[in-house]
Amino acid sequence: MRVLVPTAGRRNILLDAIRQCPQVTRLVTTEIDYTAPGVIAADVCYRVPPSGAPTYLDAVESICRREGITHILPLADLDLERFAAQRERFGALGASVVCAPQDTVTLCMDKWRTHSFLRELDIPLPWTAPLPDAAAAPERVPFPVCLKPGHAGMKNSPDYFFQRLETPEELATWLERLGDRAPRYLVQEHLEGRRELNVDFFAIRGSVRRVVVLHRHGWGAGGGITRGTTVPCPPEVAFMTQRLVAALSYDGPGNFQVWTDDSGGYAVTEINPRFSNSSALVGIPAGENFFRHLFDVLAGGDVPPRTNGYAMLTVTCAYAPRVVSDEALVDPFA
To answer: Is the full-model pTM beyond 0.85?
Structure first.
């Protein structure tokens, strides 16, 4: 399989995991910045226009033709939205877009829609409301709360930030400050004193096949995990995972965040319909290689169900230098 992963960025750990899969004969990626650490993690990296540019998809199409790409595997949130909507275009070139259906991607990117979807499934949630609704009834707001972006597409922009709010006055101030942008933000219960669990799962046609649960201890730029300890999958988490996977008829890798406390309470905050950093950083050493599972399935194989089959361990990572030259990037139109 000749695989294209758009947007190398800091995804070198994920690119390394894909490149090590025996089914992958060539791994190609793209970037606009040759200093990105993911640039040299693939066999070749192509320089492309910014993803919002009118010529971006033309450049990716040129790469697919030149490299004989058989599969496009988006890992970045913005790429998920973009390529999920372009299956026919790239399928006509023989390049299958490997990601959740467009409806699932759209649902997961919109955090309020995600919250509403999970509420319909009776999955435990933190108190959450759109910013204007919260400001209109501050007596109902369980301060302290977190002001957060309401859509994953706000990443890599000045609009993407998190702010702790302690009082109704702060809530009113941020409503005024954001103006017509206010509906794009959510106000969510601040989950103080709880542990954050990453739940990485792999599913086939709405059936959970593998799960790895870890306690997230640290994260770096962009929120990616840098330290984590695997923990046994609680029955409540296994039930939640199967419930949302079945409701979405989910295929492939995914991840969701759930917060827990000492009393056994849970609160799910978001779903990520893609590989997470933890699936490579923690999942592989723990004995569950979701990347190989994916390419096995793409090759016509199967992944038997298994719960709590992973090892208990702690993984941490530190910054390591990567030396990248400008020549590491190729111009797709050259």
So the answer is: yes
